[in-house]
């Protein structure tokens, strides 16, 4: 199988590339990523250093049809679109690029997939397209789309285009909507790596509002196994929710991190709330469990412990981001491509 993975130098995409190399070593993997601030070529260490074999990295922008077209011309069995602007806070201060990358970029890929008859298109979406929940209830695949941030609105827009390409052109499209991921290689603007980094440096941990917003956490490897199942067995046109029923308040998450690192709760600093801050997400993943047989393997307690240990053990990785050194490594790797 020959697959195009977009955004494969980011957090989930790089975990997915590693996962697929381990699980399906005979597959041809083409990884295309623009290496924005969120892309980090060193997330792919071990793949790029081995002379690649049937793995190839190309620096490219999914909005750029002319740059993407040759990748499709070579013939592809599947496209898995991870590439996106992914940070809600950035979407609030600078929404434009969320529209161009998340909507126009996804559309460019859909058009090319249609033109070149790609067998399967998996659009990686998010539970945030459903908006927010009250204290009870879960998002199902038939929950109405009600995005509240420019980020989630752009992701919902891409979902609608992907859906339309199935309905109108009969393309084999799937949309996956996963809850919050955590694990290795997550850029330290997101809650868990940011808080680990601050705690390790004895810096204040900025908790938005009352700290009682709830997220439904899933270890990234469990997201990868779900996408692998959808890629191979997803029914054309279907949406699959993904989540492990691990609801935690932000205060609980941060407290676990502080305790694991032996740091005092006094480091927590309540700061101004995020505008339009969704109160609670929780995913009903019954459909992917019953129809595709997906089962998450990492209980939250184990996953969060492994994640904290990973960031402690990979202080260099974090330092390269904090100093900006990763950017020149990105440029050097892309120049040698
Ligand atoms: P990330 O920000 O870590 O990675 C995004 C990657 O996309 C980066 O490597 C970046 O360089 C690349 N990229 C950005 N714009 C691009 C462009 N125009 N062309 C090519 N590449 C581009 O994001 P992530 O957390 O790994 O999320 C990956 C996907 O999963 C996104 O689509 C996101 O919406 C979705 N998702 C994320 C989560 C989560 O908890 N992180 C949960 C559910 C869904
Ligand atoms: O400094 C912070 N303080 C804080 O209290 C940050 C960065 C976040 N938070 C809160 C906001 C949220 O309630 O923590 C929670 C998690 O925030 P993020 O890590 O920014 O994630 P979230 O906004 O929930 O979105 C994430 O999950 C769904 C990803 O970034 C999205 O890409 C994904 O679609």
TrEMBL record:
Keywords: Lyase, NAD
Cofactors: NAD(+)
Residue ranges of every copy of the NAD(P)-binding domain listed in the record: 4-306
GO terms of biological process kind: nucleotide-sugar metabolic process
EC number(s) reported in the record: 4.2.1.46
Record-linked PROSITE patterns: ADH_SHORT
UniProt keyword NAD present: yes
Superkingdom in the source lineage: Bacteria
A UniProt-annotated Pfam family: GDP_Man_Dehyd
UniProt entry tagged with the keyword Lipid metabolism: no
One term of GO molecular function: dTDP-glucose 4,6-dehydratase activity
Swiss-Prot/TrEMBL catalytic activity: dTDP-alpha-D-glucose = dTDP-4-dehydro-6-deoxy-alpha-D-glucose + H2O
Family: Belongs to the NAD(P)-dependent epimerase/dehydratase family. dTDP-glucose dehydratase subfamily.
Xref: NCBIfam families: dTDP_gluc_dehyt
Protein's name in the database: dTDP-glucose 4,6-dehydratase
Species name: Paenibacillus lycopersici
